[in-house]
Amino acid sequence: MEYTSLGHSGLKVSRVSLGTMNFGTSGGVGSCDEAEARRIVDVFTDAGGNVIDTADTYTGGQSEEIVGRAIKNRRDTVVLATKAFLPQGPGPNDTGLSRAHLTRALEASLRRLGTDHIDLYQCHQWDRGTPIEETMATLDGFVRSGKVRYIGCSNFTASQIVEAQWAAARAGGTPFISLQPQYSLLARDIEAEVLPVCERHGLGTLVWSPLGGGVLAGRYTRGVVPEERSRMGRLMASPSPKARAWAGAFLTERNLGIADEVIRIATALGGTPTAVALAWVRRRPGVTSVIIGPRTAAQLTGSLAGFTLDLPPEETARLDEISGSAGRVPVAG
After folding, report:
1. Mean pLDDT over residues 314-331, rounded?
2. Catalytic residue at 220?
């Protein structure tokens, strides 16, 4: 397994991270029971992976609980990451990045994870209703208390990252060392501004949705309704207009054309589309670690092949070319 430093820090992370949004079955969300989740964690750590990423909102807190039990006997070898922002109750202070909400959210995550500290505590998204100075001061307090080792953010824009880092610097506090952005052959928006800002301000990246919601794995075909159990199938059947729009933004002619090229290259190399798509992301400038979110241990094993596959230069250039055309998928993390 290959390791590297996360941003401007001494924290060493594996080039592959384990995303656990699928751990648990609360409310019909997620699709991985605890027994399979533990097998996934075993395969991941046995392969040398050390970053396990979750969030307090994943499967209503089940993901954190399952992760906590799965890593109990290997806690010191894992870089445990979680996130906070999204609603944890009906009250006006049950969401966001205020001191009131983050303090309660951290304590709740520590309980669910069964640990006394979190290695990487992340803001799940920007909070327009809270001064960034309050958020950064609160996070700095968590670090000084020993309950958090490092802090990061997810889905922030370039300007929001700059604001946060400046707020920390003005107060002499703890800066972010990481960003979780969406990045794949289908969604390359971050190359223009976000990645340069991360480099300038000392943030590493843990990129999510590297398979474009499964499109780059060859799971979807033109004119065929996605299977009900698939991610896109669940989104398209959702009562939420936002969820349906998000799925539709992935299943475009452009994106399916890129997926066709990934399949062609995989066939020529004797590999899988998943491995090809992950191999491309892994070698992109500015990418520290790639988050994969398997539902089964077998899926994880297949994905890990993408971290040993080296694409020929001509195939990399072809993927760069075909995915560089205008195209955008909305953020939903």
Report:
1. 80
2. no
